[in-house]
């Protein structure tokens, strides 16, 4: 038997009760394949379980269980039924050929062996086998993606229904019982309607972003921009929400050169990182927003004193629709799309978005973009 590592070459099991045949086939194949040999059907069955060959060359006429029966057994077992079997026979009478195919064989090789023919047939079926495996693995991936997409659609519809139900419910009460409601309650209901429609609009916009990103059609309008001004603008927008939660926003923003970015897209990322830090932190904490220039890159970071993110959650953080252990601390909306979109937007700029965090010790999200 060849003693090359079985991982380097495709594995072939040759089954024949005649040692001369085994020797000839081994000589033809050993240069390109890892060979294992069996001298009976029973031995072939137990070796197949252990060796898991990519292809089996199987003699038809053998004492004990013959080639056809061996093949039938291989085809009836879950773990061996996909291994292609090529029969070896002295003469290929039509009825033998038909029976061989009926038992699940893929082809015949006749004795005396023709060196090139053996190699050609073996190569062909190994190639077919390899293509089948690739197809199966693609199929599994597609099934997984489809399940993910269904789950995603289910969650989106659920959230949308909640927002719509609130809009419908409160507007109906206002329409039918407005006279009986105190003015303060009417205002409160109007705010609920406004907030729900705002959340829904954000969700629809995020979903549109996801679909543009997924279809590979994300386009950037790159212009030389001041990242510092953009950050200041988004700090200003978020200041109101931070004040409401008694969270202190601190910033360290030195002057840095302009960089070529799509300010809408990068603004969206900055906004998501700052609003996340506010959303998942408790009152009385501080958030530090910084920018620095380092080795031809601009690095933006948001460091909070929030709940931190476990390693397990960090592994899912940048996937779509991940609402993880940390939940908003003041009833803010959360659809779990922001970070997945942010990551893609930063990648589209040739940069990277990352996180460092430990459960219980706050979180730092940061991205870097090349100064070109
Ligand atoms: N600073 C943070 N501290 C702790 N957990 C965080 C932080 N930022 C994000 N997370 C966790 O990661 C999840 C995903 O964040 P992401 O920004 O993608 O979604 P979201 O903020 O929930 O919703 P949205 O789509 O509105 O951004 C959050 O639901 C939260 O559990
Ligand atoms: Mg977010």
Describe the structure.
- By secondary structure, the protein is α/β, with parallel strands linked by helices.
- It folds into three domains: 11-113, Rossmann fold, CATH 3.40.50; 146-214, Signal transduction histidine kinase, dimerisation/phosphotransfer (DHp) domain (Helix Hairpins); 223-370, Heat Shock Protein 90 (2-Layer Sandwich), CATH 3.30.565.
- The chain is built from ten helices and twelve strands.
- It has a five-stranded parallel β-sheet with strand order 2-1-3-4-5, sandwiched between helices. The chain has a five-stranded mixed β-sheet with strand order 7-9-10-12-11. Strands 6-8 form a two-stranded antiparallel sheet.
- Helix 1 (19-29) links the parallel strand 1 (11-15) and strand 2.
- Helix 2 runs parallel beside helix 3 and helix 6 (183-214) crosses helix 10 (338-348).
- The chain is elongated.
- Mean pLDDT is 93; it is low at 1-5.
- The protein binds adenosine-5'-triphosphate and magnesium ion (MG).
- Adenosine-5'-triphosphate binds at residues 206, 272, 276-277, 280, 304, 306-307, 309, 317, 322-324, 326, 333-340, 363.
- Residues 272, 276, 338 line the site of magnesium ion.
